[in-house]
Amino acid sequence: MTTRGGALAPEHEAFLAHNRKVFLLVRSEDGTAVAYPMTGAWIDGALEFSTYRKSVKVRRIARDDRVCCVVTPWDWRDGGRVLLVWGHCQIRGGSGHRWDSSRMDAVAPAPIDVPPQIRANVAARTADGKRVTLRVEPIAAVFV
Amino acid sequence: MTAEEIDAFLAEQTVAVIAAVDPEGWPVGAVGRVQRVDGLLDIDLPPFDALVEAIRDGGPICCVFEDSPTYHTIRGVTIRGRVRRRDPQLEVEIERTTSFDFGKLPRSER
Fold it and tell me: Domain A10-143: which CATH class?
């Protein structure tokens, strides 16, 4: 059933390619849902996010990798459709791993202007293993 | 954010992401109208069957409010609670409130 989504369609991929604001829904330790606002990027058939390895969300995903991504336009509070994407979330990283924000921006600009120092910090923390990449390959999607 | 900042922030918010877990254990969510009124959350659920069916009497629910005009002014509040009433409007008893404010991050993170 996977919450009644269907296979990823071209219109879903087009929406993913142009909208980077994502709320990542994961399961907490007690089984309830928790939502995290994120900036994602549609890369090579998956949604990717960067976050700190020691963050609570990573711990929760390591425990239960089932996630729902609520992908929205930047003006998400003004109404309009959003795309729900479900998948199993992989945690990727380690020394030497790369997070290339310029490649992300080439897909679609980030919803807000991220200062260069922040971008450099993210790249450095990814390379030294303190930040990881979360990767969600869709198994179901639906517009709401 | 301080409790006062959270109160001021929530007073301006009318829309949130609503999240629950479906019977098969998958997280599910949507965007809907959510307001904090008299210490409870009043929620207008969007007509999305999977989310409606994931929310049950006395069951858990999570709502996230977020505002991000610029990177350094990103702020948000996450509220977790339990459904107290479903009809005619969804009412949630608040159990836990957390917040984030990028303007208060350590300088090394800015």
Answer: mainly beta
